[in-house]
Design goal:
The chain is α+β, with helices and mostly antiparallel strands and 255 residues long. The protein has 2 domains: 170 residues, no CATH class; 69 residues, 2-Layer Sandwich (Alpha-Beta Plaits), CATH 3.30.70. 55% of the residues lie in helices and 8% in strands. It has 6 helices and 4 strands, in the order αααααβαβββ. A 4-stranded antiparallel beta sheet has the order 2-3-1-4, with helices on both faces. Helix 1 runs antiparallel to helix 2, helix 1 crosses helix 3 and helix 3 packs antiparallel against helix 4. The chain is globular. It starts with 6 loop residues before the first helix and ends in a 15-residue tail after the last strand. This is DUF2243 domain-containing protein.
């Protein structure tokens, strides 16, 4: 019996791979290496603007990942045969597609950021990322997908689907997390929030001000371990790092 991949599971693989590419960039380049923000080349002096853009970028990746997981579950529940090799090929194609799209659109067409904003040769890093994380996964995925597969689709497909799910959930969870060696929380309040109102909200959770942007709408605060900073949403905050929304990378900002 030949193990094939249903159209639904194949598209699930594309979407999950695409979201993994976005999470990979966000975790490695935004959080760990801190080489750029999503809109580093636009209004770079406005940290509030950069923080919001990164948060909404991660929110979009969660939507894509959620759609991919839903399609994978729906395909599986519908009885579609899932080849482990073909699903892995779809993941690689989606992962590479994210980096090709990011390079063509974000780096070269729109110019909203480069891989290394502080490099004297930004094109070198753009091309390196384009080849290593874009073209190579696409070529590998195409090669794997074009190979004939055989055998029972049962056990390998279960393993592949489980690994794809775990990788996506793991990457998404990591994107939510603030750094463990800090007790800082970054809070973004709605536009027009008075500085006094933001400071009052901070005091309600026992926070201590570490840094604020000139508008007073973006605060970095220090809180005691175990503080429920999510309560700030009830007092005008629209994004709170580490509070269960795609804002964990905010605590990695150098201020």
């Amino acid at each position: 019996m030949s193990a094939t991949t249903s159209p639904g599971s194949r598209w699930a693989g594309y979407l999950l791979g695409f979201s993994l590419g976005g999470f990979f960039d966000g975790i490695l380049l935004h959080q760990i290496l801190q080489w750029h923000h999503l809109l580093s080349a636009i209004n770079s002096d406005d940290l509030r603007f950069q923080v919001a853009a990164d948060g909404y970028f991660h929110a979009f990746m969660y939507v894509v990942a959620g759609a991919g997981l839903w399609m994978l579950w729906r395909s599986w529940r519908g009885g579609g045969a899932v080849s482990g090799i073909q699903l892995t090929a779809a993941l690689l194609l989606g992962f590479g597609a994210w980096h090709v799209l990011d390079s063509l659109l974000s780096h070269w067409l729109l110019g909203i950021h480069r891989i290394r904003m502080d490099s004297a040769s930004p094109l070198f890093w753009d091309l390196l990322w384009f080849v290593v994380f874009g073209l190579v996964p696409i070529l590998l995925g195409w090669w794997m997908g074009s190979r004939p597969t055989g055998g029972s689709p049962g056990k390998p497909s279960v393993v592949a689907a489980a690994l794809a799910t775990l990788a996506t959930v793991g990457a998404g969870t990591q994107a939510l997390q603030p750094p463990r060696d800090r007790e800082f929380t970054t809070v973004l309040f709605a536009p027009g929030t008075a500085p006094g109102a933001a400071l009052e909200a901070m005091s309600l959770v026992g926070g201590r001000l570490v840094w604020s942007d000139p508008s007073g709408e973006l605060l970095v605060i220090e809180t005691d371990p175990g503080t429920w900073t999510s309560t700030l949403y009830r007092h005008g905050a629209i994004l709170v790092s580490g509070a269960g929304l795609p804002a964990g990378c905010f605590d990695y900002l150098r201020v």
